[in-house]
Structures are given as structure tokens and as C-alpha cells.
Design goal:
binds 5-amino-5-deoxy-1-O-phosphono-D-mannitol; binds uridine-diphosphate-N-acetylglucosamine; 5-stranded parallel sheet; 371 residues; single chain; carbohydrate derivative binding; 12 strands; alpha/beta
């Protein structure tokens, strides 16, 4: 039931304040006078000791689920102090890459039925690793065949383009980092500030959804373009990849997510006054580096659309020479949840304006059950 919405993708984008609330329900502990704020993930609590002792955490997924894991990697590294590596399921299988008994392997999948991810799970089980699932579908193959895991509880997602599952996956993986890192005193203040940020996140997402009309206007400007680049780095490298994936899969427009740190190693050659470029430059530890990327794109007359933290337009766009999307600022590691929303809205409006099928893009299936 689409309710008041025209398409499932639109409905699922707009219901993110609620889906995120459900994802966190019962899992964040507010703490009290002598009790610290903490996270409780019932599905993995008995396995935390083993996870903390593992030599490596390996994330495996495809498409959007891979991007969600990538968004969460920095906070896992920071809070857990365990090396974290990333694998696209098909690529791991192509290489038969090393997976060891001492590894914790985390399988991320909305449907829990993706063939490549399932085959990678079989492979990791054969190699004796602890296998953890993060899925939206209770009773799915991944939920059944992993040793333990966490349901993201985002509610049924119908649109082929994954939207609310992405933001809930990130939140679950941030909670996973908080749970694994729970045994170190030195991170306590940082952990508590992230938990505070999680409590506020649904209302921040509600706020960023107000950009709907602005994104529709931007879509009108961009609807006849051939291509759109999205630059991000740090926590928001994944936002660049995921924003570009949305535009590509539903609006059928070429789009590429680019790691801003790689700009001078090739992509800069593409820049001219016609090609639209979204630069994600919300305020975090990479901010000054992003400012200098913007300056360099600007020097090549790049057609810039900059996403920045509210009130910082003048820091990213001196002289008002570019289009600015201002978003509410949240704790750095959950900023990707806020930042993807305007790009989801942009992809949605581009698709409607270009006259394509929003919920079932050509050639794609919601759940890819063949290799
Ligand atoms: C569980 C209940 C929830 C209840 C709550 C109360 C289910 C599905 N969840 O939620 O209804 O309100 O307790 O305490 O009944 N698992 C995997 N692989 C996966 C995902 C999950 O093995 O990919 C396993 C978990 O290890 C766990 C079980 O499935 O044993 C349920 O996981 P989850 O729903 O995340 O647990 P809770 O949040 O505790
Ligand atoms: O169900 P899964 O999360 O395993 O699906 C993985 C990908 O097929 C999926 O995320 C795909 O990239 C989406 N269509 C993206 O919107």
C-alpha cells in the first residue's frame, strides 16, 4: 500500500524517520545516574567476546548493502581497533580470496537472498569463520545460515532501489561498532556522543526530507544531462557511491561516485563548465581537504552542487558561485544517513521527470537470486 505516495520508492524515502526509529527500538540504552549509555543487540550479545578476539572483520555485500558497510567501516575501525576489510561478494568468489577461522565475516543483505552473498557465506562457513548476518528479512537464507546476526527491522522494502534499508543498515553497523567497542573505557565519551546522535537521528532525517522541493527543482535543471559525478571522502565516500548508484539505476543516467582524494589521479580531466558535479562537504575531519577540492574544481570552471552543513554555505562556496544543498549536521559517523537523503530524492525526481519506471527499473530485480 503506497498510501498518499505515487511510488514505493517515494514512500520508502519519506518513511525513513519511522524506519530508523524501529531499527533502534529497544537497542539503545539511555543510561542513568550511574549507568553508562550503551547499545544492546540481542542477536549478537553472546558472540561479542569472540568477535572482539577476531583478527579481522570482513564485510561482504553487493550494491547498496556493500555501500552501507563501506559507510560504517571508519567507525568500526575507530571503536573496535580491529582491521576491517571490504569485499564485494562476487569479487571475493572470483578470487577465492583468503578467509580465515580467526575472521569475523559480516554479511550485509536487505533481502537475505542475494545469490552472490549466499555463495560467499557458504565459502566463509567452509573456511571456519564466525559468520554474522545483517538483514532485513526474518527467516531469509542469510538469517538462517549465519551463526548470529542482527535484523535491521526497517519494514518491507518494495522499490527495487534500496533506500530505507540503506540507512537502517548503516545505523545497525554503527550500533555494532558501539557494541564491539563497549569494553574500552577510553572511548566512552565518544560512544555516548554517538548514542546521543542516534537518538536525535530520526528528527534530523525528518528535517532533511524538507529538501524535497529543492531536490525536485535541481532535478528539473539536471534532467537532460548525460552524466553526473558525485565526489565524497571519509565517512561520505560511501554516500558518493550510493548517490551515484541511485541515479544510475532508477533515473538511467550515467553517474559515478568518486573518492575525492583520487581527483587528481584521473577524474579531474573530465571537469568542464558543463558536467554537473555534486561535492559532499559536510563538516567533519576531512572538511578542509574537501574545501580545497572545491577550490580546484572551481578553478577548472566545474559546475558545482555542494552539499554542506547548515550555515556553512559561505565556507564551501565563496562568492555564491555554486549551488548549495544545506543539510543538518549530526555526529560524523552517522552523517552519511542524513547526506544520502537529498540524493535519494534527486534520483527519484530525475526518474519521474525523465519518464522512467521508478519502482521497477528496466533489467533489474529486487532480489538477485542468480549469479
Ligand atoms: C528478538 C526478536 C524480537 C523481540 C526481541 C526481544 C526475532 C526475529 N526478533 O530481537 O521480535 O522483540 O528479541 O528481546 O524474533 N540472526 C542471525 N542472522 C541474521 C539475523 C539474525 O542468525 O542475519 C539471529 C540472531 O542471532 C538472533 C535472532 O536471529 O538469534 C534474532 O535476531 P534479532 O531480531 O536481531 O534479535 P533481537 O533484536 O534480540
Ligand atoms: O538484498 P541485497 O541487499 O543483498 O541486495 C544487494 C543488491 O542487489 C541491491 O542493494 C541493489 O544494488 C539495489 N537495487 C540497489 O538499490
Amino acid at each position: 500500500n503506497k498510501g498518499k505516495y505515487e511510488h514505493y520508492m517515494q514512500k520508502e524515502i519519506h518513511e525513513q524517520p519511522e524506519s530508523l526509529t524501529t531499527t533502534m527500538r529497544g537497542r539503545l540504552i539511555r543510561g542513568g545516574s550511574c549507568k553508562a549509555k550503551s547499545v544492546l543487540l540481542g542477536g549478537i550479545k553472546d558472540h561479542l567476546k569472540t568477535i572482539r578476539r577476531s583478527r579481522r572483520i570482513v564485510f561482504i555485500g553487493c550494491g547498496t548493502s556493500y555501500n552501507a558497510a563501506l559507510a560504517s567501516r571508519p567507525i568500526l575501525e575507530e571503536l573496535c581497533g580491529i582491521p576491517v576489510t571490504m569485499e564485494i561478494a562476487s569479487d571475493l568468489l572470483d578470487r577465492l580470496g583468503p578467509i580465515y577461522r580467526e575472521d569475523t565475516v559480516v554479511f550485509v543483505s536487505q533481502s537475505g537472498e542475494t545469490a552472490d552473498t549466499l555463495l560467499a557465506l557458504e565459502y566463509a562457513l567452509e573456511n571456519g569463520a564466525l559468520c554474522v548476518g545483517i538483514t532485513n528479512t526474518v527467516g531469509s537464507a542469510i538469517a538462517r545460515n549465519t551463526h548470529c546476526g542482527v535484523h535491521i527491522n526497517a519494514g518491507c522494502e518494495i522499490g527495487v532501489a534500496s533506500t530505507k534499508a540503506y540507512t537502517s543498515q548503516i545505523v545497525v553497523m554503527v550500533m555494532l561498532a558501539l557494541a564491539i567497542g563497549d569494553d574500552t573505557i577510553s572511548n566512552q565519551t565518544r560512544r555516548e556522543s554517538i548514542i546521543d546522535g542516534l537518538f536525535e537521528l530520526p528528527s534530523k532525517v525528518r528535517e532533511v526530507l524538507k529538501l524535497d522541493q529543492e531536490m525536485k527543482d535541481l532535478a528539473k535543471e539536471l534532467m537532460s544531462e548525460q552524466s553526473l559525478l558525485v565526489f565524497g571522502r571519509g565517512y561520505n565516500y560511501a554516500t558518493a557511491l550510493e548517490g551515484a548508484l541511485k541515479v544510475k539505476e532508477v533515473a538511467l543516467m550515467h553517474s559515478e561516485g568518486i573518492l575525492a582524494g583520487e581527483m587528481k589521479h584521473g577524474p579531474l580531466a573530465l571537469v568542464d563548465e558543463n558536467l554537473p558535479i555534486v561535492v559532499i562537504a559536510t563538516h567533519d575531519a576531512c572538511f578542509s581537504k574537501q574545501q580545497s577540492v572545491i577550490q580546484q574544481l572551481h578553478a577548472r570552471k566545474g559546475r558545482l552542487i555542494v552539499m554542506c552543513s547548515k550555515g556553512e554555505a559561505s565556507l564551501v562556496c565563496p562568492g555564491g558561485s555554486c549551488r548549495v544543498i544545506e543539510v543538518p549536521q549530526v555526529v560524523d559517523c552517522i552523517q552519511p544517513v542524513v547526506n544520502i537523503v537529498p540524493l535519494q530524492l534527486l534520483a527519484y525526481h530525475l526518474t519521474v521527470l525523465r519518464g522512467y519506471n521508478v519502482d521497477q527499473p528496466r533489467n533489474l530485480a529486487k532480489s538477485v537470486t542468480t549469479q
